[in-house]
Each structure stands twice: as structure tokens, then as C-alpha cells.
Amino acid sequence: MTRTHTSGPDETVAAGRALAHTLSPGTVIALHGDLGAGKTHFVRGIVEGWGGSDQATSPTFALLHEYDTPRGPVFHLDLYRARSAGEIWDSVHDELDAPHGLVVIEWAERFPELIPSGARQVTIEHSGEGRRTITINP
Q1: Tens of pLDDT along 10-41?
Q2: Is residue 22 part of a domain?
Q3: What is the 3-state secondary structure (H, E, C) of 52-102?
Q4: How far apart are CA 17 and CA 20, in angstroms?
Q5: CATH number, domain at 63?
Q6: 11 within a domain of the structure (yes/no)
Q7: Any idea what DSSP says for residue 27?
């Protein structure tokens, strides 16, 4: 387990970028954290870390955003508004099983049955006055 402390959005993006350099295609990241914790900033860093030029945005209303990068696609899911695991699976099962890309799932705790057992678990917590604590479990 590793723990990182950040004091603003730019540092949260940098933490995502640092993690991205350690990730291989086929990796699934389960992101946990309250509203406004910085999950999307962290994903922005992951996309940058894989060499992507698109700025990641929250797919809350779309369920999935895909970002092309030189290392492969980054599939960014947000389960906050999803109603069932079946709805998610029917919509994005190809992306969830993509061995050539990286899958990052915000609000993963809503449907744990969709998260593979080997997923990297990342929790982002408010630590007061713009600070965050990011905990990464392998």
C-alpha cells in the first residue's frame, strides 16, 4: 500500500500521472472517494501519464469516455448514476474486458461484482482545506 498527500488539483493530477507510468495494458483501477474528492483529476493524470492529449472529464451522464493514447485506450467509467450491474455490463462489457487498454472505474464500490479481483484499488479522501490523501492498494 502506498499513500500520497496532495494539496491541490495539480498535485492530484501528478499523482495519477505517476501511477500511470507503472500500469500495463489490461489493468483495471477501481477508484473510490466522495463527491469532489478528485477522482476525475486523478484520471486526468492517468491519461496524461499514458501520453494522451485529451483532458479527461467526468463521464457521469455518459457512463464511459474513451481516450486514445500511444500506449492504448484508457476507458474511463463512472458508475455514480448507473442503476444496475446488468445495465453497465450490457453497455460496456467489451471495454471492461479490454486486454489492450486501461480501465478506470469511478464509484467502483457501487457494483463490486463488476470489478475483477486483481483490480488496483485507489481511494481518494478529503484531508481538509484542499488537501487529499490518495491510498493505492496493489
Answers
A1: 999 999 999 999 999 999 999 999 998 999 99
A2: no
A3: CCCCCCCCCCCCEEEECCCCCCEEEEECCCCCCHHHHHHHHHHHHCCCCCE
A4: 5
A5: 3.40.50.300
A6: no
A7: -
